[in-house]
Amino acid sequence: MTDISSFTPSNISTAADSAAKTTAEKTKRAKEAALDAVKAARETASEVAQQTRTFATEKARVGAAWTTEKAKVAHHVAEDHPMGVALGAFAIGLGLGFLISRSRH
Q1: How far apart are CA 68 and CA 52, in angstroms?
Q2: Residue 39 gets which letter from DSSP?
Q3: How far, in Å, CA of 67 to CA of 57, rounded?
Q4: Chain CA centroid to CA 44, Å
Q5: Residue 15 and residue 47: Cα distance in Å, rounded?
Q6: Quick check: 37 and 45 in contact, CB under 8 A?
Q7: Contact by Cβ (8 Å): 85, 78
Q8: CA-to-CA distance for 51 and 54, rounded, in angstroms?
Q9: Considering only CA atoms, which of 12, 42, 80 is closest in space to residue 4?
Q10: Could you tell me how far CA 94 lies from the centroid of its own chain?
Q11: In the 8-state DSSP scheme, what is residue 7?
């Protein structure tokens, strides 16, 4: 352990000044590092948000085109084969009704 009586007042004040300067410098560097981290996080979040918007817009267009195309095909099939569509819908309804009634007992 250090003998505190061996320090002279000038050594103590020099050591205190040096510690204060070191602390101020480290605090300044820590603040700068924190600000840099916040800036990087903002940029990353902004970039991710932009990519998400682009992806969502692109997928919405693809989905709308696919849905419109499938609806047109289904409409033409229903016009060409109305009895087939009616019987198919009836069979699907009958099958689902059977499965639902079996699951309740």
Answers
A1: 24
A2: H
A3: 15
A4: 11
A5: 48
A6: no
A7: yes
A8: 5
A9: 12
A10: 43
A11: -
The residue behind tokens 């061996």 is 6
Which residue ranges make up each domain of the chain? 7-104
pLDDT on residue 105: 62
Q: What is the pLDDT of residues 47-77, one digit of tens each?
A: 888 888 898 888 888 888 878 888 888 888 8
Which residue type sits at 32? Answer: E
Residues 6 or more apart from 85 whose CB is under 8 A from it?
77, 78
Q: What is the spatial distance between Cα 43 and Cα 25, in angstroms, rounded to a whole number? A: 27
Judged by DSSP in three states, 5 sits in helix
- Amino acid at position 37, single letter: A
Q: Helices in 1-105 by DSSP H: which ranges?
A: 9-80, 82-104
Determine the distance from the C-alpha atom of residue 79 to the mean position of all C-alpha atoms in its chain, rounded to a whole number: 45
> Both tokens of residue 91?
């069979």
Q: Which of 17, 91, 65 is nearest to 9 (CA)?
A: 17
